[in-house]
Amino acid sequence: MHRPGDSQSSHLGQQVGLSRARNWEVNLGVTPLEDGQRQARAAVERALALNPNLAEAHVQMGRIKRQVDFDWAGGDASLQRAIAREPENSESAALATTSAATLGRFDEALRLGRRAVDLDPLNADSWDDLAWVEFFMDQMDKAATDAKKSLELSPDLGLGRNLLSQIYIMQGRPRDALREIELVRSDFMRAFLFPIAYHALGRKRSRIPR
Does a structural domain hold residue 47? Predict the structure, then answer.
């Protein structure tokens, strides 16, 4: 049986989906920057105007505030609203993890990161986020375990090898770090990481593998 609220819920979901799509198009260079960002913001604002309690809309608004406005405090506030309205949402917990860490609230970030992987244990990005928090909290063994878990789930994860190589350096294992760095796909990141590993090995100068 069709209910009046069903169509509104569908419409709100479409607005949030449209906002996310426009945001991705901007990030991929498919849509001009200003136009795409304007459309992304307008769509999620329409959703929030119709239902201020819509958790997924607050998640998307948090994403826009972080990526477009560089307003990490504002983005964090939006994510906290999303969590308050839908505590079982793994996406909001994962995004709130990086917000809390960026704002220096590492104990909270650690709690949120663990919550995110509990809610969605097959999400490689959530394991990676948790590992980064543990890395910055000097919990290297846990960070290594969780970084490996993220790579088991998604071997091509962008920052996974980057993180694991830095963990190995901090653990006094520069040779293991070199093996990981060789698997990093970004030329820029390899150029950044190789000198650190070679310095840890006590080499003053060395030819960087290509």
Answer: yes
